[in-house]
Amino acid sequence: MIIRKCIALLLICSLLLTIHPETGHSAAATEGSKEKVRHRTTYIFDERQQQVTVRTTVISYDTGMKKVKEYDFTDSSLQPSSYRFTSTNGFNQQDGVVVDTPQGLKAYTLAYLNTGAVIYEYDYASIKLRKITEIKSNKWLKLWAKQGLYSVRSDNGDTQYYSLVDNKRVLSNGSIITSQDVTDTKFSTNRSTSSTPLGVYCPDAKFTSCFTLLFGGLKGSPVKVTKNDIVYDTKQPVSSKTFMAGDTKIKWTSTYKEQTYRAVVEGNRGGKTTSLFKGEVRDIKTFVSPNLKYLVLIADPSVGIKKTKASKVLVYDLKTLKQVRSYESLYRARVEKIQWVSDDLYVIDYYFSNPQAYPPSFYYIPEGKHFKIEYSQYRDWVNYWDSFSYEGMFFLTLPVAITSGEGVLRYNGQPTFYMNGLYYVPLEEFTNAFHIKYEIQGGDLLFVRNSRTSKLAVSQSKQQVVGGKVYLPLGQWNKDLGLKVSIASKHVMNTELQFSDEERKTAAAMAPVPLPHRATVEEVKQVAGESVSFVGTQPYEMSNPDRAVFRNIEVVLNHNRTLRIRMQNYKNNGEMLHVKILSNDYSKVLMDIPVDMRNRYEATSTAIPTDVLENGVATIAIPYNPELYLAYKLQLPVFDPNRF
Q: For 65-69, 155-159, 171-175, 193-197, which range has the lowest pLDDT when averaged over its residues?
């Protein structure tokens, strides 16, 4: 252990010698959660099947693995009046916004039709879909999912707010001040954004009598709100803005003289004024971190379509007013806003007509480092819900899972990430999992795994050191040790790297993940006799406990005890399917469940009773032909939004 710590210290030192110095994605982080999971929901509107399908995706940030489930809702009362949407993608799909409500985890979506819109709520725990409302008009609508509201604005400009809980009007006109409004310094309050997670409602234009919002538009405690307008001098070309960030007062002044714009920014704390910035700039933008730890100042020397120079980004400690970071913006583009992930991590949104060509970056203030991310991942991220806090993490899109055989790499913090065409693995977790020894000698990293060795010059390794942890790109060094990526499966929310291991038959191989139950499927035939019973042939073991696919027939046991059956290539598709629930030893038929598959290739059954489960396992027999059934032994899953 002491040797490892020394090696890590040497690696940090070597890196220092070579390197020069309203969103809702962070909904309700749970401190001390045993697992780190991300939830995403996608609504699919299927006109051919006349159904609404909800697809849930869960990503583990402890392993990078994902689970996907789909739930079909065919009740006619839940269907939209039309399947001609203007807000969905080419497959008639769109994401919901996942929210941790007082009633549990839910996902809301507002889907625009050619005329009007429809709003849905999906309840994770009960697996129920609710059609909150369908509005058949072209009025301006907005979904405030995090706040549990939606708003309707009439032609005369009046805005009415309705609760997503009961679809009743709860607020009229006024303004909702979100945490984004506060961190953008458009408004200031006498609270930190963490103490007003759903925002603040002000009933009038003077921003008096404001109160914190509770879910569904309920009234919370009073809050003092100040609108931070830019003030323009009518007698001379001078503009200024003053705002409070906790106990610190920030003021910037811009003057235009002799065809030059000059700006001065000052901070005052405890009666002492500190000069923060002076210079020739065309525009000043200010931002504060969610818990008022940092002030970010962006000094823009040129603006508009003729912008030719990069902006200066300055970061200050709001308690000491000392500058802690300074850098040039990555692109010569207009800054739109800053998306804060935590007090230490943010992303700058720039304006581009083709943002995919200019990837944004996480900027980690404690290390002063940029981590480029894919725009598509960052764009969709606002709809997700994470069960974990982001402290100590710096790359929060597209986690990478590493598997080998039946083993899965577990992370102690930041997972493997993909940046600039390279996969960066946390060195300590990776080497521990594959029983690799390493040390540094004369500026080289030396690796040993059984009889295999590899050498890598630290100066050429492109390694990243964050918080004392080394993240090393995969490359020739791991191939030399018998570890090659055989399959790289890149999905919407994660990537899985499957490693082929030339040492898989030795003690150096990754340990398999123990599972309490694996689903099985086998062919069974009915036995002639007085009572109905079945006999099996050879069971096939699956990788998941609650689902299995065999001969193009997929059966999933949902946590509400319903069965989802998908039989797209089933030769008897289009008939009523008579499913049997058997005892685990096939000696008895416990019940029959008719499942309507007429004109369908997938359907969901009614819930099976708890007394047909044996040690939490149900045995489901699906008719395959007149003489043969397929018996699926599936374990009932338990839903917990904080567990993978």
A: 193-197
In Å, what is the CA distance from 198 to each residue of 147, 213, 216, 381, 396? 5, 6, 10, 18, 22
| Cα gap 303→297, rounded to integer Å | 16
Helix (H, G, I), strand (E, B) or coil at 300: strand
**End-to-end alpha carbon distance in the chain:** 30
Record the tokens describing residue 117, joined without a space: 């819109």
SS3 per-residue string spanning 235-294: CCCEEEEEEEECCEEEEEEEEEECCEEEEEEEEEECCEEEEEEEECCCEEEEEECCCCCE
C-beta of residue 146 within 8 angstroms of C-beta of residue 198: yes
The predicted pLDDT at position 6 comes to 41
Half-sphere exposure of 443 (CA within 13 A, CB side): 6
- Chain-centre distance for alpha carbon 366: 23
Q: Quick check: 606 pLDDT over 60? A: yes
Query: Of how many residues is the chain composed?
Result: 644
- As a whole number of angstroms, the distance between CA 60 and CA 399 comes to 8
Q: Is 11 helix (H, G, I), strand (E, B) or coil?
A: helix
How far apart (Å, rounded) are the C-alpha atoms in residues 638 and 640? Answer: 6
Return phi, psi of residue 381, to 5°: -60, -30
Token pair of 315 as six digits: 């970061």
DSSP of 145-201, one letter per residue? GGGTEEEEE-TTS-EEEEETTT--EEEESSEEE-HHHHHTTSEEESS-GGG-TT-EE
Token pair, residue 517, equals 């139950």
Name every residue whose Cβ is closer than 8 Å to that of residue 317 and which is 6 or more positions away in sequence: 293, 294, 324
Q: Which helix (H) or strand (E) holds 5?
A: helix 2-18
- pLDDT score at 209: 94
Cα–Cα distance list, 187 to 180, 193, 251 (Å): 9, 11, 14
Amino acid code (one letter) for 369: K
Look up residue 247 and give its two tokens: 């106990």
pLDDT digits (tens, 9 = 90+) for 200-211: 999 999 999 999
Q: Report phi then psi at 193, rounded to 5.
A: -65, -25
Residue with tokens 């399908």: 53
pTM: 0.88
Find out whether 372 and 404 touch, Cβ atoms under 8 Å: no
What CA dihedral angle connects 563, 564, 570 and 574, to 10 degrees?
90
Q: Which of the four pLDDT bands, split at 50, 70 and 90, describes residue 377?
A: confident
Q: Name residues whose C-beta falls within 8 Å of residue 339's C-beta, 6 or more positions apart in sequence.
A: 23, 346, 347, 348, 349
Tell me the per-residue pLDDT of 563-579, one tens digit each, with 9 for 90 and over: 999 987 655 555 789 99
Q: Give the separation between CA 285 and CA 298, rounded to whole angstroms.
A: 5
Q: Which residues contact 620 (CB under 8 A, 6 or more apart)?
A: 555, 557, 563, 579, 580, 581, 582, 631, 632, 633, 634
In this structure, what are the phi and psi dihedrals at residue 165, rounded to the nearest 5 degrees? -75, -50
Of 17, 57, 63, 79, the residue nearest 404 (C-alpha): 63
Contact of 365 with 318, CB cutoff 8 Å: no
pLDDT digits (tens, 9 = 90+) for 433-465: 999 999 999 899 999 999 999 999 999 999 999
* The two structure tokens encoding residue 491: 């999905």
Separation CA 418–CA 373 (nearest Å): 8
Q: CA-CA-CA-CA torsion for 392, 394, 396, 401, nearest 10 degrees?
A: -80
Please, are residues 423 and 441 in contact by the beta-carbon 8 Å criterion? no
